[in-house]
């Protein structure tokens, strides 16, 4: 399968990427690892006229402590996040989940900025970031702005990023190793997208593939904060969700998985 | 557009379409046909090659993205004296293949795995090869081959002068 024709622009800096975005407008897509975008382009489900390569912006590749947060540059690859000692020490949930994306070859290419901006509701890393209340830093012609991840996703493949903005950094609270966490991912093959996945950390619960975007299990969180047992809180994980049905699972089964995986993730988090 | 890269130690520059995939570049422009195209959907790993020390699926990388990189394919593994690299040698001695279609990708992925984890357990080999499918289901001997190759030490996780990472 071969993608449709496009123009390839190599950005040497964030400013170059932004001016290319401004110049080409809706025609243009940023590409970092390309492991979500290229498969769509090969199927001609995405037909961008211009690809702007930001993978070489190595100044955006870092995982570092900044005050009481961990800052992760947008072009940081999954394997770098997975093996980062800073991530393992300060935000182990995220380091762990980065190691569950695809397979080793995919993790060598895919980036945190790419998976966050791609906005597939079945993505592992955004699910963990939602449970962590991550802040996303976008940069555009007018400068930088901070967006709470809870406000970032509008729908399937849709975010609040403007056409001339790019994601440059992801920030998560420095939790250290004493805060319990759990991540449960249900797949048929090890390197697949989750059929459903649940991240639990610090009383917060986020789910993948239960709606058009990654979502929080609000009813479960409320139950937990009012002192409910894990069993009782997890029983309401699917409340208010209307997941899709597909060849992997129908909606009822996804809701069952949401309850079950939430229970397991909360138990894991509580046993830390 | 022009792309320049080093393939198996030889640097070259070619004029390509931006949409040319790295696997097609390697097979059709460079003429190295060991790298197979299996599923063409980033699933099966038959097209695995090593780019700047990292295993990648070359059906999901543009040649343009690999510009300036150092690429190693199965053909680049033999030493100057023609000696077999420890990993393909172990696939040979342990009969780590049936039809052989997945083998080039399995070998390259195994080298990456052994660089990161020179003494893997059986389970760690299976997990490390999660991105590579054998449709003959000949996994047992593939795992045996990787464990056998590990006995060769650091050379098993190395290609030429450059080290790789899984």
UniProtKB/TrEMBL annotation, chain A:
SUPFAM superfamilies listed in its UniProt record: CO dehydrogenase flavoprotein C-terminal domain-like, FAD-binding/transporter-associated domain-like
Coiled-coil region: none
InterPro entries to which the protein is assigned, alphabetical: CO_DH_flav_C, CO_DH_flav_C_dom_sf, Diverse_Substr_Oxidored, FAD-bd_PCMH, FAD-bd_PCMH-like_sf, FAD-bd_PCMH_sub1, FAD-bd_PCMH_sub2, Mopterin_DH_FAD-bd
Superkingdom of the organism of origin: Bacteria
One Gene Ontology term of the molecular function aspect: FAD binding
Domain FAD-binding PCMH-type: 1-177
Keywords from the named record: FAD, Flavoprotein, Oxidoreductase
Protein's name in the database: Carbon-monoxide dehydrogenase medium subunit
Species in which this protein is naturally found: Antricoccus suffuscus
Automatic annotation (TrEMBL), chain B:
UniProt cross-references to Gene3D superfamilies, sorted A to Z: 3.10.20.30, [2Fe-2S]-binding domain (1.10.150.120)
Molecular function per GO: 2 iron, 2 sulfur cluster binding; metal ion binding; oxidoreductase activity
Keyword Oxidoreductase: yes
Pathway where it operates: Alkaloid degradation; nicotine degradation
Keywords tagged on the record: 2Fe-2S, Iron, Iron-sulfur, Metal-binding, Oxidoreductase
All residue ranges annotated as the 2Fe-2S ferredoxin-type domain in the record: 1-77
Metal-binding recorded as keyword: yes
Domain of life of the native organism: Bacteria
PANTHER family: OXIDOREDUCTASE WITH IRON-SULFUR SUBUNIT
Name under which the protein is recorded: Carbon-monoxide dehydrogenase small subunit
